Please model this.
Amino acid sequence: QVQLVESGGGLVQAGGSLRLSCGASGRTFANYDMGWFRQAPGKEREFVASIRWSDSNTYYTDSVKGRFTISRDNAKNTVYLQMNSLKPEDTAVYYCATASRSYYSLDPNTKSEYAYWGQGTQVTVSS
Model:
């Protein structure tokens, strides 16, 4: 049973930073692409960032480029999302997700490519 557990969310002022963590269990973490998505109230869940299993290449949505950094520690079965220069529009529930297939490079910003999701962690940025 694959489990993803996010942590690190909270309330921060605009311009501040947070680091989200997502711990994975139930399979060999290193063999799977990982991604972060977010969902603001009344909006659809949207892609934020992803990282490849194969070469740790990273992908970002345009609105977070230069501010957010995704990374992974395969020894700890954990993926991180470092968020700097936060803006009120970054307020959302943040979810980590992973593919169902190992050794597979998924289309990073396609939700249907991700089979497993965490429960989410709330990030609130005040102005």
Summary: The radius of gyration is 14 Å. The mean pLDDT is 95. The chain has no helices and eleven strands. The longest strand covers residues 18-25.
